[in-house]
Design goal:
By secondary structure, this protein is an alpha+beta fold. The chain is 29% helix and 32% strand. The chain is globular and about 40 Å long.
Length: 104
């Protein structure tokens, strides 16, 4: 199980893994599952956190069919992703979007 510290450590360690003294924005994507974070008075568990360069994207898995609405997800699901984005930003990550997808 990952925490903010282990995800950030993996992100920061990229420069060593890349073999140079500077972190590159062109490094491989990373994936962390069941990430627990807190901040902004919120505690959340992110099903999947994907990182690419300096950006991260929370992915939330839901059961059942996606709703047939323009937003693609129900309001509580969208609020949950927004809260995860706020917590990620408060923990020093760049997060501009989230994904709701069907669990298999």
């Amino acid at each position: 199980m990952d925490s903010a510290e282990t995800v950030d450590g993996r992100f920061q360690h990229r420069r060593v893994d890349a073999g140079s003294g500077k972190a590159s924005q062109e490094l491989e994507t990373f994936h962390a599952r069941s990430v627990y974070l807190s901040g902004a008075g919120i505690t959340c568990r992110i099903d999947l956190l994907e990182g690419d360069g300096g950006h991260v994207t929370p992915v939330d898995y839901k059961r059942g069919e996606s709703p047939d609405i323009p937003e693609g997800a129900y309001e509580p699901e969208r609020v949950q992703l927004c809260a995860q984005g706020l917590v990620l930003r408060e923990n020093g990550f760049v997060c501009d979007e989230g994904i709701v997808t069907k669990a298999f």
